[in-house]
Amino acid sequence: MGELATLFGPRRVAVVGATDRDGSVGRAITENLLADFEGDVVAVNPTKDEVLGLESHDSVGAVPDVDVAVVVVPPPIVLDAIREAAEAGIRDVVVITAGFGESGSEGARRERELRELATEHDLNVVGPNSLGIMNTGVGLNATFGPENARDGSISFMSQSGAFVTAVVDWANDRNLGFHNVVSLGNKAVLDESDFVREWGEDPDTDVILGYLEDVVDGRAFVESAREVSGETPIVVVKSGRTEAGASAAASHTGAIAGSEEAYEAALDQAGVLRVDTVQDLFDFGSILAGQPLPERDGVAIVTNAGGPGVMTTDAVGDSDLSLASFTDDTVERFQDALPDEANVYNPVDIIGDAPVERFEDALDIALADPNVGAAVVLACPTATLSYEALADSVVDLQAEYDTPVAATLMGGSSARDANERLSQAGIPTYFDPARAVRSLDALREYRAIGDREYTEPETFDVDREAAREILESAARRDTNRLGVEAMDLLDAYGIPTPDGEIVDARSDAVDAAERIAPDGEVVMKIVSPDILHKSDIGGVAVGVPPEEVGDTYEDLVTRARNYQPDATILGVQVQEMVDLDSGVETIAGMNRDPQFGPLVLFGLGGIFVEVLEDTTLRLAPVSEPSAREMLSEIDAAPLLRGARGRDPVDEGSVVETLQRLSQLVTDFPAIVELDINPLVATPDGAQAVDVRLTIDQEQL
Amino acid sequence: MGELATLFGPRRVAVVGATDRDGSVGRAITENLLADFEGDVVAVNPTKDEVLGLESHDSVGAVPDVDVAVVVVPPPIVLDAIREAAEAGIRDVVVITAGFGESGSEGARRERELRELATEHDLNVVGPNSLGIMNTGVGLNATFGPENARDGSISFMSQSGAFVTAVVDWANDRNLGFHNVVSLGNKAVLDESDFVREWGEDPDTDVILGYLEDVVDGRAFVESAREVSGETPIVVVKSGRTEAGASAAASHTGAIAGSEEAYEAALDQAGVLRVDTVQDLFDFGSILAGQPLPERDGVAIVTNAGGPGVMTTDAVGDSDLSLASFTDDTVERFQDALPDEANVYNPVDIIGDAPVERFEDALDIALADPNVGAAVVLACPTATLSYEALADSVVDLQAEYDTPVAATLMGGSSARDANERLSQAGIPTYFDPARAVRSLDALREYRAIGDREYTEPETFDVDREAAREILESAARRDTNRLGVEAMDLLDAYGIPTPDGEIVDARSDAVDAAERIAPDGEVVMKIVSPDILHKSDIGGVAVGVPPEEVGDTYEDLVTRARNYQPDATILGVQVQEMVDLDSGVETIAGMNRDPQFGPLVLFGLGGIFVEVLEDTTLRLAPVSEPSAREMLSEIDAAPLLRGARGRDPVDEGSVVETLQRLSQLVTDFPAIVELDINPLVATPDGAQAVDVRLTIDQEQL
Question: Of A53, A115, A105, A52, which Cα lies nearest the Cα of A78?
């Protein structure tokens, strides 16, 4: 156990504000604590002599050796109570009382003071505005909910207290147990990252589940989740996913949330299994707690009913699992064991008249096949089959092979006892076979997370000082938006750009063109911080031959002046022609999320970004394998690999550009937004043809 | 009721093969019939005097006035039994016996004879290989399943008998009732189309549910479903969706299935709500049977718990419903009725201490709002709230407003009674609020189906004879694949093509170019049925100036000869240049599905088809609104509407091309496959620049 060992495993708990008043929170908590807790319960309430049979103390400091103070006094005296506890040496506090950050400026002030107090005394504080905490391992129920959880190996945190009561009530009805339960409340001190870290070190927690509306510190959460998720699965509903949901969440928690895209990328990079629904949260949590991980993706389906077998096969087709191909040996064994009408290929149909022995034989043969990583046992009720006996066989065979199994014993009352037996043994069972398959697929997904190798992002040798000088010179000009004049910034970070020069006289333009492309064509672009869409005003000339460079220079400047007489014109960029025809236009960009910091974006340019929104994101810094993944996960990825008879582009060069971009935006928090568009990828490398960025001068 | 009125509502049913042998199917059926059936049950078995207290007759012809014969005799004597029944005037037969089409050539022959017998005597035959049928309206359970269904307004057909037993068992446990239930068996005579049509006319059937692995006659099914689906919702799981599932289905039913894409298009055009899972099938069926349709898309969420409220809002965001905006008046009413801390905007959070009266007030106000089309009542268990009382209020208010409501009373045992009360009143209730919202969204989707106006496909004035002559002349040349030489086929059907001519001499090429583009450039293409990929062998020349036409002619012919010396070369096509730059390359195509006939395809050309597979399909014939939908539903649709600063293309011209193409392929079943690629769409119209088709000479 980690730093919160005492919080979850106290020997003595004091209820500060204990009372026997009917219907009060103080009474509910005291009763819940008295019910099962293995340690001592102490009542603190200066207005009482006795509470529910306990001697009532005037102050928490009056009782020795208290490990945890559960505070339920009215808001104005919460801080005093905590101070008293801290001074008595108590380090772990659960604040049930509401009326803090969630309720106006007075509450917000109180919450700030609570945070300061916690820092001063190095306190672990749950809440405020929390339903409380549970640890079934020691019978601790320090909540005011109506029911205590059953014992289990799932630890669950929730940003909604009401949801905790609902879940515990529901889970008790379904033999689903918990190890720890935490109602996070306002997360003034302890937040999701703390509990993830704690449960990651807790041998009694097999799975971490969370309902979150935001995370307090995006980067800290990613870091702690990444450390834990390889060993302990973390499954999270992060609500406020949709626009409507996000605005509902904001009005509920008052938090400034990061963008949905940032959460999506962050949770994925942290190895968190993100789910969208309560059903998936507990389906996935249950199977992760109850079943081993599959060693391969092949699923065997064993059924007494062809039709449902087809539906289950469809569900496998929808998942990232596959239907296992049986070995010849397995097929032969099925042929020996099953009647002639049976289907000995996957899905194995053992025919409607199958007794339990035939089911058992078939499952045994299937689980022994080296291509089978998981199995679905699928049955419809028949006169010849005892569901209870089938459940027993499935439990035994699952244990014998230690291969994950999910069940669908279809039916209502006829399946109830069998389903109870299966779920008690940790084998999930659903009426809908698609749910069984989905759960197995969650095991596969988690196995893939466990298999990830974390690669430290590479640090390239760059000219950081040159980059700083470019940004600072922009700041000195009081410019927040930069365009092609910032190509040097890319050069400084080793991102390939076409040869180019910014000139501010006709003759210099001619000289530059002569140097860049002797006798060849060049591209010319107006350079002005005030003109964002150069193409729209005819500010870009492509394929300019040597004899027209001078006139084109004049022409571009005139157009810019006509378009916006007061625009600052820095000059004209003369640039090497990049052969767009042999290349693919991509875009590499960055935006900075309030919660998670810089996010690196990749996609194909043009319609792919603008119309199809076919892009992908990663939190910076981006490692090499991670940048490579970005290239492969966009829909248009085949175009990079040389679709339609073209040569594949040099992916390595694009990958390195993304890494170098990631380093640049990590080094300079002043860069708020940056787009390399297009980044032209050809078989010979990538080149950044244009760039646009926004800086925040305060951050320099 | 329709043609199957007697089948489902007989006065006298004979069990042919009735027996009292333990564990036999004949006994199970006789017992099930004796249990609740309002009419008479007659036993037929020449080897018995009495069966289960019934006099046993030697032949079904020996008893007068039998309406339905349920046949359970061994396979070899099934046909005799049916013939006897037919001769006794019985028109409705349920064949339980297996050993027909599903089992070898002997069985297949038997099934063919059964079909002939049915045609000869005009029989309605269910099965063979069926579990039987039920009609709870008259207590008819002519199945050998272990349980009878409860009474309800859902009629359910299933291509899997095992699934019927599972569903009935499960549904009985959940207060879900059925009106009719049919196990379709091998569908030798009566198939899904017959039952859809029957139930569409049945006032006791509110919803039709189906589990199908194939349909017997694709076009007939679409027609009957389209007739019915406007009045009675049809929800179907069509399994074998995925590649793995399709091959499992083929081995299960032995049917040659249509393609998944064809089913998808056909079910959609037929107004069938297609679902992928058993859970959705019954969730959607239940709400469609229990709740009215929403008059608008706005959903009100009323909850005592903020967190679950956010999750529910996310679920609304995921759906095609929207969060209702309340009127000012409604907001004021909430402000008056609710405590200060409440959220009076949607989702309405009435705060954790809400008693049932506050829930009732809030729901009442919400349902009265003119922007609210449906409501979700969402509660977590609290000490102040009685779930049972809440359920009563919800049932009353739902009935009062006749607005659809779904509920999520979270919890386990604490919610059981309340949930039972709600579901008895037809209000769906789930632990996961996402499921409640999904169900409401199914109501919306069905409302949209009901709102569809069916437009008869237009018939254009075309030169059918010219088209026939082109196809027949190809057949005379024994050519199955046609290319640009078939452009005239498009002309005959009024599909715009660039001006062009096929020539077979150098001088004719020069003359043709002079006529088509005096002093301008032309496109030239080799014309050969043996060269499919003209571009790959350099068989296409674009932008040929007048002075090069002659040489280019020679060059193209030489290249073709070099590439394939024995190729039949029909000549060279000289074609008007089409300005690809101002246009969007689209593709209009057709392929013929074995089950559903011609399907018309539309998409953008190039990468959109090849890499992104961004296409859409319709069964021909395609009406104008339907063709217009095709243009709008591809992902790249914005490109047609003028994305990126371009002028929108003339969509009407593309739409008309799709309609005319649809007419062409409907008129000529000999056209097996046809692609117009590219069909160039510009602001001024669409032009078919190239075409390729395959014909089946047998069909001419």
Answer: A115
Nearest in space to A410 (alpha carbons), one of B172, B409, B564: B172
Q: What is the DSSP letter of A537?
A: G
Say whether B157 sits in a helix, a strand or coil.
Answer: strand
Domains of chain A: 1-138 (3.40.50.720), 298-451 (3.40.50.261), 464-576 (3.30.1490.20), 580-695 (3.30.470.20)
By three-state DSSP, how is residue A66 classified?
coil
pLDDT tens, residue by residue, A187-211 = 999 999 999 999 999 999 999 999 9
**What residues does A41 pair with on adjacent strands?**
A13
| Residue with token string 């379709």 | B184
**What does the alpha-carbon distance between residue B202 and residue B231 come to, in Å, rounded to a whole number?**
11
> Distance, in angstroms, between A27 CA and closest chain B CA?
13
Among chain B residues, the shortest Cα distance to A437 is held by: B277
What would the two tokens of residue B297 be? 């898309």
**In sequence order, what are the residues at sequence separation of 6 or more whose Cβ sits closer than 8 angstroms to the Cβ of residue A492?**
A462, A463, A464, A466, A467, A470
Hey, is B371 helix, strand or coil?
coil
In angstroms, rounded to a whole number, what is the distance separating the alpha carbons of residues A351 and A303? 8
Query: Considering only residues 82 to 111 of chain A, which have any Cβ-Cβ distance to chain B shorter than 8 Å?
Result: 103
Please name which of A357, A358, A395 lies closest in space to residue A375, comparing C-alpha atoms: A395
Q: How far apart are CA B263 and CA B342, in angstroms?
A: 49
- In whole angstroms, what is the distance from residue B271 CA to residue B282 CA? 18
Which residue carries 């099953």 as its tokens?
A338
pLDDT in tens, B435-469: 999 999 999 999 999 999 888 999 999 999 999 99
Q: Which amino acid is at A622?
A: V
* A165 contacts on B by Cβ (under 8 Å): 380-382, 411
Q: Compute φ and ψ for A613, nearest 5 degrees.
A: 50, 45
pLDDT in the model for residue B617: 94
Instruction: Reduce the DSSP state of residue A381 to 3 states and report it.
Output: coil
Using only C-alpha atoms, chain A has a radius of gyration, in whole angstroms, of 32
Burial class (CB in 10 A: 0-12, 13-18, 19+), B29: buried
Complex confidence, ipTM:
0.92
Amino acid at A198: E
Exposure pattern of B365-404 as b/e (b: 16+ CB <10 Å)? bbbbbebbbbbbbbbbbbeebebbbbbbbbbebbeebebb
Dihedral over Cα of A190, A193, A197, A200: its sign: positive
Structure tokens at A561: 């002046």
Cβ atoms of A655 and A624 closer than 8 Å: yes
Interface membership of B240 toward A (CB under 8 Å) = yes
Gap between the Cα atoms of A657 and A495, Å rounded: 6
Helix (H) or strand (E) segment spanning residue A204: none
Model confidence pLDDT, tens digit, residues A65-91: 999 999 999 999 999 999 999 999 999
Q: How far out from the chain centre does Cα B617 lie?
A: 13
CA B692-B695-B697 angle, 5° bins:
155
Q: Following DSSP, what letter does each residue of B56-83 receive, concatenated?
A: EES-GGGSTT--EEEE-S-GGGHHHHHH
Instruction: Say yes or no: A237 contacts chain B, CB-CB below 8 A.
Output: yes
Tell me whether B275 touches chain A (CB under 8 Å).
no
Q: Is residue B604 a contact partner of residue B586, using CB atoms and an 8 Å limit?
A: yes
Choose among B161, B244, B612: nearest Cβ to A317.
B244
CA distance B31 to A271: 57
- B175 with B423: CB under 8 angstroms? yes
Strand partners, B429: B407
Q: Are A12 and A40 within 8 A, CB to CB?
A: yes
Please check the confidence at residue A186 and state whether its pLDDT lies above 70: yes
Question: What is the widest separation between alpha-carbon atoms in chain A?
Answer: 102
pTM, whole model, 2 decimals? 0.94
